[in-house]
């Protein structure tokens, strides 16, 4: 499907509801902002961006605040019972009920995403696993449809592409460089620097420190349990850092955040697809998956809670079960079925 097909579909609608995935990141937020601008250029007056979960990562909070992104909390019933002529769009995710609170089976009009999916069902689908960011795809539409590119939109899209590709070092393609070249002249350099260097909370620093202290290494794979934390987005930051340790090719960090177990994985090992690995290990008990080099997961804590009377016991149980599942999936040597290190005696 083409940019003209997207414009024509948007022009049919009286309003557009754009749903972000749970705990949206810059790639998702920038893509939603860009799709809203595309809709406005097509004559759609009523537009809204919805999200669920939290915006807790300091870069995500800075993104929303500095760029003044207008967000609303997602009400599943309202999304499902939209008025006639109201279009529903997903950006940076694609399936109702998977990493979002939209009820399963809800009809979707537009899906634009770069994450792996077996199949996607919508009136307009642009699914490109081979590009490094969903924001790259939206940048192409902004360019091809000659949508006004102001400093806010250009900065949002360029920052999202840089963040999603870790500064053009992870999963980057020629398309990201082309998009960056198009966006560069309209970008606010000072704002881009502010987004790249936000203040880090003490709780985030504590969670990252805990991940370093509790790391265990099995060959070239590192696992770390941060225990209970209020900072969900400290996990991917910890995984990013731990993946840079000498001899480590795959880093997986997990911990308890409110009523879920959250996981974040990074890998440079050509033999490992961490998205597939997390899906194989945890898809039967939660949502997990992602790319070859970057993935995440979420497991309801109810799976463990009935067997644990207090927080310390619960953290130990989570570590045992998660480690055992990862060990089985990744074939980690020296880790028993209960997740504990095996003796060489």
Automatic annotation (TrEMBL):
A GO MF label: nucleic acid binding
Domain (DHHA1) ranges: 227-301
Domain DDH, chain residue ranges per copy: 17-161
Gene3D superfamilies assigned to the protein according to its UniProt record, in alphabetical order: 3.10.310.30, inorganic pyrophosphatase (n-terminal core)
UniProt superkingdom: Archaea
Name of a matching Pfam family: DHHA1
Name this protein carries in UniProt: Bifunctional oligoribonuclease/PAP phosphatase NrnA
């Amino acid at each position: 499907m083409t940019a003209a097909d997207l414009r024509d579909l948007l022009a049919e609608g009286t309003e557009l509801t754009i749903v972000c995935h749970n705990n949206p990141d810059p790639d998702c937020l920038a893509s939603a902002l860009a799709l809203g601008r595309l809709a406005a250029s097509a004559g759609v007056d009523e537009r809204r961006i919805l999200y669920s979960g939290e915006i807790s990562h300091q870069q995500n909070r800075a993104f929303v605040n500095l760029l003044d992104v207008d967000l609303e909390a997602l009400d599943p019933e309202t999304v499902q019972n939209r008025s006639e002529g109201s279009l529903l769009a997903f950006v940076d995710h694609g399936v109702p009920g998977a990493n979002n609170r939209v009820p399963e089976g809800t009809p979707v009009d537009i899906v634009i995403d770069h994450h792996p999916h077996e199949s996607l069902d919508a009136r307009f689908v642009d699914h490109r696993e081979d590009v490094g960011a969903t924001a790259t795809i939206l940048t192409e539409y902004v360019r091809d449809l000659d949508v006004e590119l102001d400093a806010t939109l250009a900065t949002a899209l360029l920052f999202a592409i840089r963040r999603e590709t870790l500064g053009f070092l992870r999963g980057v393609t020629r398309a990201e460089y082309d998009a960056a070249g198009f966006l560069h002249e309209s970008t606010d350099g000072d704002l881009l620097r502010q987004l790249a260097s936000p203040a880090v909370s003490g709780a985030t620093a504590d969670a990252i420190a805990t991940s370093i202290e509790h790391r265990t290494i099995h060959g070239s794979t590192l696992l770390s349990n941060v225990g209970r934390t209020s900072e969900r987005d400290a996990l991917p930051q910890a995984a990013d850092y731990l993946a840079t340790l000498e001899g480590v090719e795959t880093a997986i960090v997990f911990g308890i955040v409110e009523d879920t177990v959250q996981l974040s994985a990074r890998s440079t090992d050509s033999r490992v697809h961490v998205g597939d690995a997390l899906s194989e290990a945890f898809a039967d008990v939660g949502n997990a998956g992602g790319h070859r080099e970057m993935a995440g997961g979420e497991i309801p804590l109810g799976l463990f809670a009935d067997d644990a009377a207090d927080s310390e016991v619960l953290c130990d149980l989570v570590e045992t079960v998660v480690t055992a599942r990862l060990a089985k999936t990744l074939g980690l040597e020296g880790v028993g079925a209960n997740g504990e290190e095996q003796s060489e005696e």
